[in-house]
Amino acid sequence: MKRFFVLGILMFGLAGFGLMSGCSDDDNPTGTQLGDTSSIQFQYIDSTLGENMFDEFGQSIDLSFELLSSHLGTSFAGSKDHPFMALQGDDENIIINSIDSWEFTNDFWWVFTFDATIADGDDYTFLSGTDSVQLLLGTSPLESYEGELNFDAIKARAHINGTNNDDFEIGAHHRMDASVEEVGSDSIITISGTTRDTLDFSVSDGQGECDILLSQWLDFDNLEILVQTGVDDDCPQDGSITATFTIDLSCIGGDNPGPLEQLDIEGTWTISAVINDNGTVTITYTDGTTTWQVTEEIDCGGQG
Q1: Is the pTM of this model over 0.70?
Q2: Which residues are 246's β-sheet partners?
Q3: What is the Cβ-side half-sphere exposure of residue 41, based on CA atoms within 13 angstroms?
Q4: Which DSSP state fits 8?
Q5: How many CB atoms lie within 10 A of CB 252?
Q6: 3-state secondary structure string, 118-144?
Q7: Which of 12-16, 27-31, 76-80, 245-249 shows the lowest per-residue confidence on average (mean pLDDT)?
Q8: Confidence (pLDDT) at 226
Q9: CB-based burial of residue 276 (10 Å sphere; 0-12 exposed, 13-18 middle, 19+ buried)?
Q10: Which of 20, 28, 202, 239 sees the fewest Cβ atoms within 10 Å?
Q11: How many whole angstroms separate alpha carbon 210 and alpha carbon 204?
Q12: Which helix (H) or strand (E) holds 62?
């Protein structure tokens, strides 16, 4: 799982609108008119919003574990081999700059006020806020964090503001619960929760410039992730994600006008992703008047 919050939107290849994959489904679940999946507006929404929905949960858990590791140090031994670690991003590096305050509450929550940097290649995001995290064994929270820890569930609650070196502002509120079940040598992680993010930025590809104001709300409903021994990528197996995006995007062409100048998207979109039994995911998009539906193979399971 890569990218922190909605960094995938900023890092999306702006000239790559023709890279739409998957097939259109003739079903029209909402009664609205069917949309053209080759339209530049749909391809932007699919590439920047639809494909990044699966990143949110791992990113929240990433931060919580980094805060625990930074604060507890060697007393957090054993966690690096935990199945939850498979959710961590391959590219990004979370640097805890400071923990300004911390508390271990009477009901066994760690509460951190912090300052951190997310490094992803040449891209840097600077975060500050509060993160509350609780580790559990079964339904019982851990009361001691000494020695090697034995836990099979985590609760994380984050309230964060941030900026990026590409000059955008972000606000985030994440509430995630995750548990792990061992199945032979593999593990299944089940995730439920909600995330709310806002993003305000401008981006240019040399052929045009876009101003974007985005608010997104995601609900994760018993999303099951298979973590296999010796396999690099964790793989969604079951469950669903529903997202509501309110977007105000307008673009103007540059000296060499390209696809960006055609983009003008305003309004509220609803996106639902359902994991199918055959290794595919069906994603349904609607803007209130038009519905698009694509079914794509889930790209996971590469050998380590």
Answers
A1: yes
A2: 215, 268
A3: 19
A4: H
A5: 14
A6: EEECCEEEEEEEEEEEEEEECCEECCC
A7: 12-16
A8: 85
A9: exposed
A10: 202
A11: 6
A12: helix 56-72
